[in-house]
Amino acid sequence: MLASRLLVLCAYCAAQALGVIFESPPSEILDKNYDIIIIGAGAGGAVMANRLSEDPGTRVLLIEAGGSDFMNLNISAPGLSSTLSRSRFDWNFTTTAQAGLNNRSVPYPRGFVLGGSTAINLMIYNRGTIDDFNRFADVSGDEGWSWARLLPFIFKVDKMTAPTDGHNTTGQFNPALHSTHGIVDISVPGMSLAIDTRGLAASAELSQQFPFNLDYNSGDTIGLSWTQSTIHHGRRVTSATSYLAEAFNRTNLDILVNTRVTRIVPVGNVDGAPDMRGVQFAQTANGGRVP
Ligand SMILES: *[C@@H]1O[C@H](CO)[C@@H](O)[C@H](O)[C@H]1NC(C)=O
Ligand SMILES: *[C@@H]1O[C@H](CO)[C@@H](O)[C@H](O)[C@H]1NC(C)=O
Ligand SMILES: *[C@@H]1O[C@H](CO)[C@@H](O)[C@H](O)[C@H]1NC(C)=O
Ligand SMILES: *[C@@H]1O[C@H](CO)[C@@H](O)[C@H](O)[C@H]1NC(C)=O
Ligand SMILES: *[C@@H]1O[C@H](CO)[C@@H](O)[C@H](O)[C@H]1NC(C)=O
């Protein structure tokens, strides 16, 4: 039984090797108890695995259905559609018939690898608008969701880095809106295309209709801007290359890949109600269920 209980450390755990990614569950994982089991290593799961394992006393297991080969994901020119959609990194979902699309079903790519969809997306770094966040605050009655209150946390994520070609980026984004100490590296394009100068020229001539926006991550997204991408030194940045990479060598974090959670199961009873803190899993879509 793979169960999450309040801090049950075994002698083996203390001797555990660093940076372990398990491709299949070794018996020691099955015998272990974790304080926290996280299902899915995408944008949410990888961040949680990093932050929760900062406390060396908290034993964390991260389970991902896809594989571990996120370092091998290429940035490919027309982006996602050419190589990553319908690849071994994609769940290959298709939507239900969409009324607004003349009832067509369309592919709905979702990442199937450490990093999840951050490993197969188009790498555009795009915050919400001031209005979006302030509306969350209004609707929830919690000022903590407002743009002003969230910005310090956005700065913990964001790290503006030099573009691949090292050009002078003055006038291509607003440095005051970015941090230099976040965990996710971003950059403006390392090469420009002929269309870029034409777009900027049009923006200068028709500034009423197509205003130049120095930084579309200011909370005001309207206008023409230089794109900010989750790219660093010509390589894709994902929640695995950032949040997981930082946490890999912690002895209190285990990562199990190629593993689909099939059920949440009780580990006992609390006050007469089932205590749902265990997981059942399989290593292929039709594979045997464990336990
Ligand atoms: C990445 O590109 C290189 C060179 O084009 C190729 O050899 C390699 O197989 C590619 N990797 C993936 C995961 O597509
Ligand atoms: C998605 O489709 C590709 C191409 O057929 C395949 O290689 C891959 O295994 C599929 N993904 C899953 C999660 O089954
Ligand atoms: C889409 O499907 C719905 C339900 O079957 C049907 O009522 C509707 O007429 C269809 N719309 C189009 C544009 O075919
Ligand atoms: C980058 O360009 C700006 C504006 O042209 C200039 O003021 C600045 O000195 C340049 N920075 C470097 C490092 O050359
Ligand atoms: C873990 O990785 C960090 C950053 O790469 C490094 O500073 C630290 O020494 C490593 N710790 C161990 C125990 O290897």
What does this structure look like?
With about 290 residues, this protein is α/β, with parallel strands linked by helices. It has 2 domains: about 1-125 and about 240-290, FAD/NAD(P)-binding domain; about 125-235, 2-Layer Sandwich (Glucose Oxidase, domain 3). About 20% of the residues lie in helices and about 15% in strands. It has 8 helices and 16 strands. The strands form 6 sheets. It has a 4-stranded mixed beta sheet with strand order 3-1-16-13. Strands 2-12-5-4 form a 4-stranded parallel beta sheet, covered by helices on one side. Strands 6-7 form a two-stranded antiparallel sheet. β10 and β11 form a beta hairpin. α3 runs parallel beside α8. The longest helix has 12 residues, at about 195-205. The protein is globular and about 70 Å long. The model is unreliable at about 1-20 (pLDDT under 50). The protein binds 2-acetamido-2-deoxy-beta-D-glucopyranose (5 copies).
CATH topology of the largest domain: FAD/NAD(P)-binding domain
CATH architecture designation of the largest domain? 3-Layer(bba) Sandwich
Kindly report the average pLDDT value. 88
What class do helices, strands and sheet pairing give? alpha/beta
Overall body shape: globular
**Terminal residue distance:** 6 Å
Topology order in helix (H) and strand (E) letters: EHEHEEHEHEEHHEEHEEHEEEEE
Q: What is the strand tally?
A: 16
Largest sheet: 4 strands, mixed
Write out the distinct hetero groups bound to the structure.
2-acetamido-2-deoxy-beta-D-glucopyranose
CATH homologous superfamily name of the largest domain? FAD/NAD(P)-binding domain
Uncertain regions: pLDDT < 50 for 5+ in a row?
1-18
* Strand composition percent: 15-25%
Q: What Rg, in angstroms, do the CA atoms define?
A: 22 Å
How many domain modules? Answer: 2
